[in-house]
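REVIEWER CHECKLIST
Item 1: Sequence provided? yes
Item 2: Single chain? yes
Item 3: Sequence as submitted:
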Amino acid sequence: MKLAVILPGDYDEELCEQKEKYLNHFASVGTQIKAFPSGGTKSIRSLIDFVLIAPGAVEQAIKAEKAGFDGVALQGT
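Item 4: Structure as written out by the authors:
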């Protein structure tokens, strides 16, 4: 099973890899987790920050589906 986790914010590749390693540690055997940044803002502190990350999060979810991922989750929800 392949799961995509969307990180809400503007994360660099190194941090995405760190999150993937952490999440895969808890995944079941045969489950692969890949992290994708949504972009838009550095952190979420208000409703406007959610608005800023939404387009990127949707875009990443569509890309994950096209890439054959079985599920998508937004980190922190």
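Item 5: Key structural point noted by reviewer: The mean pLDDT is 91.
Item 6: Recommendation: ____
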